[in-house]
Here is the input.
Amino acid sequence: MMVVCGLAACKKTVVTPGLFGKWELRNEVGGIAGIDSNYKAGNGTVMQFNSDSTYQHYIKGKLYNQGTFHIETVYPPSSPYDEIFYNGNTSGQYLKLSGTQLVIGEDYDDGIAATYQKIAN
Here is the structure.
């Protein structure tokens, strides 16, 4: 099993309790246009992650998207990282949780990394 994991990235579903709560968008960076946008507190673009593995995504205070999510730790040969998967999708997004800061996505290869600040549990 370890040899297989070493040759290909293995994944393991994980629970990330610190993720639960409301997170407000503070910065977006990357993309083909090279955006670097900062957002003030109270902007209303919020991700809410619930302990029952559901989420709600609000833009300017209005519900934009909702559904289920799960997190997997990916173990490539280099260094492990977490990915978040929405609504049963098989393609995930990079996820990094550090205290009250959350980054979803990455600006590698024209992607966009969004940084959120925790605003409520």
Remarks:
- The longest strand covers residues 62-75.
- Residues 1-8 have pLDDT under 50 and may be disordered.
- Residues 71 and 84 are 5 Å apart (CA to CA).
- The two ends are 38 Å apart (CA to CA).
